Amino acid sequence: MHSSSPSHSSPFNLVAAAHAAMIEHGFQPEFPSGTDKELAAIAMQTGLPAGAGIPDLRGLLWSSIDNDTSKDLDQIEWAEQLADGRIRVLVGVADVDARVHKGSIIDSHAQSETTSVYTGVKVFPMLPAELSEGATSLNENEDRVAIVIEFAVDAAGTASDGKAYRALVRNRAQLAYPSVGAWLEGKGPAPAKVAASADLAAQLKLQDSAAQRMQGSRFQHGALDLETVETRPVMLHDEAVEIARLEKNRATSLIEEFMVAANGVIAQTLQNAGVASIRRIVRTPKRWDRIVELAEGLGTTLPAQPDSKALNDFLLVQRQKDPDHFPDLSLAVVKLMGPGEYVLVKPHAPSPGHFGLAVQDYTHSTAPNRRFPDMVTHRILKAWLGSQPQPYSEETLNAIALRCTEREDAARKVEREMQKRIAAVVLHPRIGQSFHAIVTGVNQYGTFVRTFDPYAEGMLVRGGRGLDVGDKVTVRLVSTDAQRGFIDFSA
To answer: How far is 73 from 63, CA to CA, in rounded Å?
Structure first.
């Protein structure tokens, strides 16, 4: 049984806990010495780091959609209706490499960290904020050089005519998921910038219809429509006071579809170019037998061999049948599929593909401000576009892929530990109160529940006998321990 900590008179310091968790999991949250000097040199480079003859696309009505709080803007979008009924989509991605040179102190730090870590109370960025939120971010009304990824979407949702090139761009409107999503779904008013511009409204509607076509097509091919719940703390005077769920909507799905397609175009381009690259894959699940067992327990027989289409059909039925428990089923499936990993793909070698997305060609190239593999992919692409020698050997690429997989795993652990600590802090003042909950796990350690509001996981330390996964139960909060991330309930 968890021991409860005495009530603290002083609040638990979540930011300090996040910093300690970063170090414990092998990250270096401080930038190395020499960083300031490089930043000063980058700041001196006024004007655009443009190459000769790169197209100027600053006149297009580009916009970005991201979280309300995002400051590191990696991509912008634009679309146009073609005469043949297809929709041409352009995704502009920050050309971070134009400012951060390979082998620099900042680059070496990024190669070691490989990812920004989002702990809910503090972001530990892979690149200094002066870059990721400044010089290399596609900020509103700033001229930037970008990697533009282009494709055309037909009525059936198939993307074709993919290509990638460098261009000058300018983000005309920084928008956010919740307000754009509510407006696209007809549940809310147009965000101010959209209301003020009929052209921007039309532009977003066109992007949305391209994304809707693509989503339909991807699910037909067996992409998994999973619903794992993401949460973020609501902060008041640096204190976590509530836990909010991040809701998926038409705007998040628009960006998701465009990113999957853009990453596919880059993978295909590098494959056709005959150069080695790093791919992002989710292998065919090793624990498929356990997924089959899960489905059987819910009255569905899945094929003996891994089949993403059959799995998704089962998930769609379950989402309708038992929406409360669907996030937990999704999480179980995600865990059994195993985490994604980065792998070296040699020229003309078959790629293992991405089981969860049901795509064969998938790389990471759309978030270079916060993921190192994306910077590597851009360097490989730019070398090929400029007929330059490749910047990395296959051996180096393989080492980078392994490091990125290992660090991403560590980042997930930090984020998960912090989610538990945040929940313990938020719930601490509510000891003694009752909550509606659902049983999410029963094992040799005990019975685990998840409360619906706020969304938090804990352990039943009393009264859990006879309960099973999926049972709904009213629980009373007994104690919290923020340091260990423990929340104890009684039934």
So the answer is: 11
Residues whose CB is less than 8 angstroms from the CB of residue 385 and which lie 6 or more positions away in sequence, other chains included: 164, 165, 166
- Give residue 333's pLDDT: 80
Q: Which residues of 185-216 are buried (b: 16+ CB within 10 A; e: fewer)?
A: eeeeebbebbeebeebbebbebbbbbbbbbbe
CA pair distance 41, 45, nearest whole angstrom:
7
The token pair at 379 is 């360097």
Q: Which amino acid is at 471?
A: D
Q: What percent of the chain has pLDDT over 70?
A: 93
Place of tokens 């976590």: 240
Average per-residue pLDDT in the chain? Answer: 90
| Average pLDDT, integer, range 59-81 | 95
CATH 2.40.50.140 residue ranges for the chain: 1-26+413-491
Region 475-486: mean pLDDT is 96
> Per-residue DSSP letters for 69-112?
T-----EEEEEEE-TTS-EEEEEEEE-GGGTS-TTSHHHHHHHH
- Global pTM reads 0.88
Say how many residues make up the chain.
Answer: 491
Which residue(s) pair with 147 in the sheet? 93, 166
- Using DSSP's 3-state secondary structure scheme, residue 325 falls into coil
Among the ranges given (85-99, 353-367, 396-410), the one the predictor scored with the smallest mean pLDDT: 353-367
- Is-contact 282 235, C-beta < 8 A? no
271 CB-contact burial (10 Å; exposed 0-12 / middle 13-18 / buried 19+): buried
Structure tokens at 261: 């397609």
Q: What is the CATH number of domain 1-26+413-491?
A: 2.40.50.140
**pLDDT at residue 7 greater than cutoff 50:** no
